[in-house]
Amino acid sequence: MRIAYLGQMADITTENGISKKIRMQTVAWAAAGHVVRYFASVPRPPAWSGLAPLEADLIRRGNALEQILCSRTLCQHIDSWQPDVIYFRFAHHSPGLPGLFSRYPTIAEINSDDLQEYDLTLSAPKRVYHRMTRERVLCRVRGFVAVTSELAKRFSGFAKPTEIIGNSIDFAALPILPVATPDCRIRLIFVGNTGTPWHGLERVDDLAGMFPEYEFVVIGCTPRDYLGCPGVRNVPPNLQLVGMMAQQEYLPLLTNATAAIGTLGLYRKHMDEACPLKVREYLALGLPVIGAYQDTDIPPKADYFLRLPNDAEPLAPWRERIAAFMEHWRTRRVPRSGIAHLDVSVKEAQRLAFLEKIVATSRHG
């Protein structure tokens, strides 16, 4: 198949979770014999060098008027490329998309409940525009790939064929971290920032206060960002804030880590289920995870995932459970045999089978 990957609101000019996910997906598709090209409007070209050898057609986004023009230009570029299928990372309506999706079978990847998330991240005019136009796009796609079963249910009103495929990780690209020695101070890692409220950064502050004997390292947040969080007055002495870092830069910080922290504020989006990219990376490295949500791909009784309540209540009642979890994993690593279903090869084979099914159905129709 010729697959046009259409990205929206994905910053692929830097190394981040989304750009690494796009690389994993497209490398797997190319390895399976498909031809892939990435199309997107971006704040500033060029693309992150790590996306190579993926071919990308990027157009600078510009101001509001220029965004309308570049969206139509991008659709023309996809039209000229003549794909068999469009894989659309859904975010919002853009001029030209409804017509484009009417001409080519399109699968929309659903990564979040946009109506809930945009109430937290967009201005009032943008929220109104989105609510008025989202159906123009979603009604014209041929199917959905939802990253959680909860999202699949929330989009079921569109009556589209839907496949639930949680996020994955490339095991071959990551090492299993060496086991920490018993005399090492317990260390927890959190990858997150203040720009995404559902990460729950302020709850890491609660944990640092509950466990002054532990060390906490936050990757993706500077001290200045942290002090800007509501209710935060100072940086605890056992909390290290290192700002944004590339994967090869922050891996050394994880070497002696005991565990990692996943999403802690999902309730802010009125959601309970997720499959964070960072959690897959933690697990691939061998780190057990503490999170406050139901993970799409983690069994309820998995001993490597401690699930906290998905609410804003104090975590103090969970102190003993957390301490026991940390002691259990102090000199252990999560075996990959128990998380093999998270590998990119498994997930992308499922995704490609769904794309081929939609394409075949469209041709038959």
Number of strands: 15
Q: Assign an overall shape.
A: globular
Strand arrangement, largest sheet? Answer: 3-2-1-4-5-6-7
**Architecture per CATH nomenclature, i.e. the level-2 architecture of the largest domain:** 3-Layer(aba) Sandwich
Explain the layout of strands and helices.
Layout: E1 2-6, H1 17-31, E2 35-42, E3 55-60, H2 64-81, E4 85-89, H3 97-103, E5 106-110, H4 114-121, H5 124-138, E6 143-146, H6 149-154, E7 162-164, E8 187-191, H7 201-210, E9 215-219, H8 223-227, E10 239-241, H9 247-254, E11 259-261, E12 273-274, H10 277-285, E13 289-291, E14 294-295, E15 305-307, H11 319-328, H12 344-364
Parallel strand pairs: 1-2, 1-4, 2-3, 4-5, 5-6, 6-7, 8-9, 8-11, 9-10, 11-13, 12-14, 13-15
Helix pairs in contact: 1-12
Describe the structure.
With 365 residues, the protein is α/β, with parallel strands linked by helices. It folds into two domains: 2-168 and 343-364, Rossmann fold (3-Layer(aba) Sandwich); 171-341, Glycogen Phosphorylase B (Rossmann fold). Helix content is 36%, strand content 17%. The protein has helices spanning 17-31, 64-81, 97-103, 114-121, 124-138, 149-154, 201-210, 223-227, 247-254, 277-285, 319-328, 344-364, and strands at residues 2-6, 35-42, 55-60, 85-89, 106-110, 143-146, 162-164, 187-191, 215-219, 239-241, 259-261, 273-274, 289-291, 294-295, 305-307. The strands form three sheets. The chain has a seven-stranded parallel β-sheet, sandwiched between helices. The protein has a six-stranded parallel β-sheet with strand order 10-9-8-11-13-15, with helices on both faces. A two-stranded parallel sheet has the order 12-14. β9 (215-219), α8 and β10 form a beta-alpha-beta unit. α1 (17-31) crosses α12 (344-364).
